[in-house]
Specification:
Helix content is 30%, strand content 17%. It is of the alpha/beta class and 740 residues long. Bound molecules: beta-D-glucopyranose.
């Protein structure tokens, strides 16, 4: 090999990158040297869109470096013109927005995308969002949300990738790459924002904004890995979280933002507070007033304040009093300007308004959204009713069958319901010429308790060959500040299912929700259940094709489904108790009357719900069946620098071509601290034709078995391990290996 030929271009590329970085840093320094203190503080102040004249005045005077929620491309151009042409130094604005699961073309909610276990479709969704939003001048999105969510009462579980750190890391990185592309100065990209740093999803009791008590080791082993992965993938910004952990709000946590994020992880991007999270440190009882809150946030390492006005109103005085150093302010401004340079905003501050209008809902965007919706649906139950075959008449019922707004899901500001393809519309369009479709919603919306139409549903069901009930949650019942303490189907939806079942015809339930609901009691009232979370703009077409077998379900639970809300928090990667449940425990109706005082099963379980969940993490059926076999490791002993090569045979033993999400779990049998009973370490979507078998491989570097142990150092501990390759987090035969 001609090494010179190979190395020279690499060396030139590296040198070019270095000189670009040096050049950017020089431009930043030059700008900072020209800025007044007021202009510096202005860059650190983010405002939301409102009275445009007032905003223009702030921008002209250099009082704000970033605006969120500007409604359209023309307004972005107008305000950007004020920043670039009318402010003293002409520093462009950075315009941001919550583009969480699509901009106009809406993809499934992130929890739904997580059910696909498909980084490629997640990346594509983020790319589509970036193309549509950046065309309107939005170059910074507050996504991905990386909060590990182990409690479905918490409404923001919808915005998360579920309960698993590895899945969240993989999908978070895919989103960052989709938003930011290969070159962030390309005007069709957006800066990603990994949020909420950190622990926000562990809110006590699932009540939003609540405090958390995450230990240092748990923080490093469970909550931080997705953030570290996204920082390594080049995420340009980080948002601090609302919660306090062990008494310290993230927005004022110097150890978190300076020691870990900046020093240990080498993050050179920008840190933004959450909306008023600086000001809220007063309510937390961590700061006496806004001045103290401002000092705590900036000294901790927050560069930009979102909407608490703390920096703009307090920093000048804090500097005068010596409570904040000029160097701290300069560093914050440096991080903000670096972001603007990295996005090429100085070169391309404006957008083309015609293109902005043309590119929304492009056919390839809709096709990707449809694929994402298809991959995110989980088949939870099927007695053979699905896919629907030989049916001539179906009754479509339920409040989610034609809910253009609610199907889009939470925290979706730009998706327009009139563009939503609902299941009813899609069934009529795709199958209406072959199948007679009767429609009676039965209930007007998910919380509807008006039972007057239920009798009619039963009567119409008698005239049909099958009934499809679209139930779930309205979009507004999940998301921020939408915690619930009861996770059963709302309103009279369970009764609607029973009314459909009363006709004696096959019933399919399709649940469209923002979280895993406690649907255990509803399973008996249906022959099959497809769980789609809120599937977005193209959800209807995806679901219609899944129902009729033109697509085959492949989604898997990204989070544990509970039998009862009282089981929360419940997650698969928990530590064992000293008395794990065996599954043969005595349940409440078996306890004899006046039983003497005893600890019954002597194990960890609930008297009423037993131990297991309704559906475990990783679970999901298909129209076909898969078998795993011959799981083999290339050795039974490894050193920490080696890679474990696992081979296995996956066979499609059924009648449909389909995709299986193969999963690899490990268990560290005994560590310096107790380790989870299983941890996901690899997964892959594998497509097999009916009857096909394939030998597949996973490679797992032993270094990925590292964790923070008793001595608080992150490393691989030698000892015995178990490994499973299987289709969910509870099945499979363990294979043993050792790390020496
Ligand atoms: C949310 C953030 C969001 C911000 C801006 C806050 O209420 O917690 O996730 O990015 O608002 O809209």
């Amino acid at each position: 090999m001609n090494l010179k030929k190979y190395l020279l271009p690499v060396a030139i590329m590296a040198l070019t990158a270095c000189s670009q970085t040096d050049d950017t840093e020089r431009r930043i320094d030059r700008l900072i040297s020209q800025m007044t203190l007021a202009e510096k503080i202005g860059q650190m102040n983010q405002l939301t869109y409102g009275d445009e004249e007032w905003l223009a005045e702030q921008i002209r005077n250099g009082v704000s470096g970033s605006i969120l929620n500007i409604p359209d491309a023309a307004t972005v151009n107008r305000l950007q013109k004020v920043a670039v042409e009318e402010s003293r130094l002409g520093i462009p604005l950075i315009v941001s927005r919550d583009v969480i699961h699509g901009f106009h073309t809406i993809f499934p909610i992130p929890l739904g995308q997580a059910a696909s276990f498909d980084p490629a479709i997640v990346e594509q969704g983020a790319r589509v969002a970036a193309i549509e939003a950046s065309a309107c001048g939005i170059r910074w999105t507050f996504s991905p949300m990386l909060d590990i969510s182990r409690d479905p009462r918490w409404g923001r579980i919808a915005e998360s990738f579920g309960e698993d750190p590895y899945l969240t890391s993989q999908l978070g990185v895919a989103m960052v790459e989709g938003y930011q592309g290969d070159d962030t100065s390309d005007p069709s990209t957006m800066a990603a924002c990994a949020k909420h740093f950190i622990g926000y999803g562990a809110a006590e009791g699932g009540r939003d904004y609540n405090g958390t008590t995450i230990t240092e080791r748990l923080m490093h082993n469970v909550y931080m890995p997705p953030f570290k992965a996204c920082v390594d993938a080049g995420a340009l910004t980080i948002m601090t979280s609302f919660n306090e952990n062990d008494g310290v709000p993230s927005t004022g946590n110097r150890h978190l933002l300076r020691d870990i994020l900046r020093q240990q992880w080498g993050f050179d991007g920008m840190v933004v507070s959450d909306w008023n999270s600086t000001g809220e440190m007063i309510a937390h009882g961590f700061a006496a007033d806004l001045k103290e809150a401002a000092a705590q946030a900036v000294n901790a390492g927050v560069d930009m304040d979102m909407m608490s006005h703390a920096f703009i109103s307090q920093l000048e005085e804090l500097i005068d009093e010596g409570k904040v150093d000029m160097e701290t302010v300069d560093n914050a401004v440096r991080n903000i300007l670096r972001l603007k340079f990295r996005l090429g905003l100085f070169e391309n501050p404006y957008v083309d308004e015609t293109y902005a209008a043309e590119i929304q809902y492009a056919p390839e965007h809709l096709a990707a959204a449809k694929r994402a919706a298809e991959e995110s649906a989980i088949l939870l139950k099927n007695d053979g009713t699905l896919p629907l075959k030989g049916v001539r008449t179906i009754l479509v019922t339920g409040p989610m069958a034609d809910a253009q707004h609610d199907q889009l899901g939470t925290w979706c500001f730009d998706g327009e319901p009139e563009h939503t393809v609902t299941p009813l519309a899609a069934l009529r369009k795709l199958y209406g010429d072959k199948v007679r479709i009767i429609y009676e919603p039965g209930l007007g919306y998910s919380r509807d308790n008006d039972r007057s139409k239920l009798g009619r549903v039963t009567a119409l069901a008698r005239t049909a060959d099958a009934v499809v009930v679209f139930a779930g949650e309205e979009a507004i019942l999940s998301g921020e500040a939408h915690s619930l303490s009861n996770l059963d189907l709302q309103g009279a939806q369970s009764e609607l299912l029973r009314a459909a079942k009363a006709a004696g015809k096959p019933v399919v339930a399709v649940i469209m929700a923002g979280r895993p609901l406690t649907i255990g009691g509803d399973l008996d009232a249906c022959n099959a259940m497809l769980y789609s979370f809120h599937p977005g703009t193209m959800g209807g077409e995806a679901l219609a094709e899944l129902l009729f077998g033109d697509a085959v379900p492949s989604g898997k639970c990204p989070v544990t489904f509970l039998k009862e809300v009282g089981q929360a928090p419940y997650y698969y990667n928990r530590n064992n108790t000293g008395r794990p449940a065996s599954g043969n425990e005595m349940l409440i109706d078996q306890i004899p009357l006046r039983a003497g005082q005893t600890s019954l099963g002597c194990s960890s379980y609930y008297l009423d719900t037993g131990f297991g969940p309704l559906f475990p993490f990783g679970y999901g059926l298909s129209y076909t069946t898969f078998e795993y076999g011959d799981v083999k490791l290339d050795s039974n002993e490894y050193t920490p620098d080696q890679t474990i090569k696992v081979t296995f045979t996956l066979s499609n033993t059924g009648k449909y071509d389909a995709v299986e999400v193969a999963q690899l779990y490990i268990r560290d049998v005994a560590g310096s601290i107790a380790r989870p009973i299983r941890e996901l370490k690899r997964f892959e979507r594998i497509a097999l034709k009916a009857g096909e078998s394939r030998t597949c491989t996973f490679e797992l570097p032993v270094s990925e078995l590292a964790f923070m142990g008793l001595d608080k150092r992150v490393k691989v501990e030698p000892g015995d391990f178990k490994l499973w390759v299987c289709g969910d987090s509870v099945s499979g035969e363990a294979v043993d290996f050792k790390v020496i």
